[in-house]
Amino acid sequence: MLAPANSPDVYLRPKGIAAMLDVPVFLGGTLHGVVCHEHQGNARTWTRDEQLFAMSVGQSIALSIEADRRDQTERALRDSEHRFRAILEASPLPMIVSTVEGELIYANAAVGAAVRPAGRQSAGAPGPGVLRRPQAAEDLARGHRKDGRIVEREVQLKQGRRIHLLGALLSSVRSGSTAGR
Asked: Is the pTM of this model over 0.85?
């Protein structure tokens, strides 16, 4: 019969280890690993300072892993936002990103083209008074606040042109987000 790897005869005695201090490394409440401190020579009792030092090593490792995970997540978010903005900018369809409160964060060039009076060359996001019916803007904002989205709505602009809102304005986009900035 083979002895387990952690038995004194297999690991500890051949290496002359007489005392061990193991510290768990927890990430999000889950055991992620163990830092093992070993003493070669005579048996001994670990002092309170040594125990605190060992715990700080385990906590430092956990913090380093968490920081690395956070950096990876932030990098992935930036990449995702970059791809999202590239899609918005390349779209021939008018696309708007707003906060739940209805604050405009971003409008692509197609929005400017859709609301620009005929013959005007400057692009830009729709400002106040671009809709034929002033109440229409409030109706859109109210629907957005209530449902978190606007789907399949047609609106008429002041210059008479009609635009069809196809997509959804997502309520998950919050004030202060970097989406589309």
From this structure: no
Q: Answer whether 137's CB lies under 8 Å from 131's CB.
A: yes
The stretch 143-168 carries a mean pLDDT of: 62
CA–CA separation, 97 vs 108, rounded Å?
9
CA-based nearest residue to 91, from 65, 112, 122 = 112
Q: Which residues contact 84 (CB under 8 A, 6 or more apart)?
A: 179, 180
Domain boundaries, the chain: 8-75, 92-165
Task: Return the pLDDT at 32.
Answer: 93
Return d(Cα 21, Cα 45) in angstroms, integer: 9
For residue 158, give the 3-state DSSP assignment: coil
Q: What pairing do the DSSP bridges indicate for beta strands 104-107 and 96-98?
A: antiparallel
- Please enumerate in sequence order all residues whose Cβ is within 8 A of that of 36, keeping only pairs 6 or more positions apart, or say none: 20, 21, 22
Contact by Cβ (8 Å): 108, 89: yes
